[in-house]
Structure formats: C-alpha cells, structure tokens
Amino acid sequence: MRLDELEERMGDRISITWKSFLLRTEPKTTDREKFAQYTQSWLRPGEMEPKTNFTLWSDESDEPPSSSVPAQVAAKTLEIVDPDRVPAYHRALLVAYFTDNRDISNWEVLIDVATEVGVDRAAFVAGLDEHSTAMTQAVIDDHNAAIELGVTGVPCVVINDVLPIPGAQDVEAYERWIDKVSEAMSGSGQ
Asked: Quick check: 160 pLDDT over 70?
C-alpha cells in the first residue's frame, strides 16, 4: 500500500522487487485463541495505514497459517507462470491474510487467491507442481540473503541491497532514505 504510493510518486526512479523473508520457517500448529490475541498487535499499524483494513482473527476465522513457506513459494512460482499478475497477487495475499483472515499457508487458499486476481488456475497448479522444489530453494536463498543484509523481521525495505529500513515507515521517510542513498552512490561514482 505505501510502496504502491511510493512507486506512484517516484516513478521510474525506483524499482520494487519483493523478496522472501520467513516468519515461520517450519510448519507449526498455532492455537486459534493465542493467534487471535496475537492479532491484537495489528491495531496500532492498522491505525497508521489508512489504505488497509486489518481484521482481528476470531473463532469464525480460518485456521491460523502454519508456515510462511507456502505463500512465498506460491508468489515465486507466479513469477514464472504469470509475471504480470505478481504485484496484484502480493496485494491480494496481504488482504487475504490481514483483512479476510484466510489461511495463506493452505495451498487451496493460495490457488484461489491467484485465480481471484485473474491467474489461470490450471496453469498455476501445473506451475506449482513443476517448480515448487526450485521455488522453495529460491525462498530459502532470499531469506538467507535478507539475514546477511541485517533484516530481522517484516516489513523491511532494503534500498540498493545496502540499507535495510525496518518497520512500516511513512512514504516521506522512504523518499528521504532513497534520496540519501542515491546521493551517496552518485557521490561515490557508482
């Protein structure tokens, strides 16, 4: 949401590339009540983000996600199957999780979200079957690279592979950091 606005403001001065960072590296069953309590922590960022709608999980919500890996693998697979729909898929996954309280570690949910943004269901399923092993490795590689850059959680924006900015920032803060990094790089002859 903020990155969409940043992209609108800065145009072709920036290019946004989504990378994987795993919050739940191993499948883990979470107690629904504890997860619902955890989602209380979404209230503060929800107040700060006027373009999103955070919905706290309840007894009526899907089961909490058990792992970060499936959603990351699905997004990477879509980069092969239907690259033009990747930005819409990223946004739809965020809505599915934070607003609709859907289990985005469930493959059927991930496939449904893809079809909701116009991806051909059969092609996506075939892509998952063909590429899941390679894309799982790509997710792990992204995660390890993020750790090497100093990323410890999400959200985190890394500028030019040198400056990780943790936490959700306002658009103006991102603009200032991008300008500073650009100035430093142009001053160093890069």
From this structure: yes
Which amino acid is it at 31?
A: D
Report the CATH number that the domain containing residue 120 is assigned in CATH. Answer: 1.10.472.60
Residue 185 maps to a domain: no
Q: Which domain holds residue 28?
A: 18-148
Q: Quick one: tokens of 71?
A: 């959603």
CA angle 17, 38, 158 (to 5 degrees): 20
pLDDT band at 84 (very low <50, low <70, confident <90, very high): very high
Q: Which helix (H) or strand (E) holds 68?
A: none
Contacts of 76 (CB under 8 A, 6+ apart): 20, 131, 135, 138, 139
Whole-model pTM over 0.85: no
Task: Report the number of distinct structural domains present in the chain.
Answer: 1
Strand partners, 157: 165
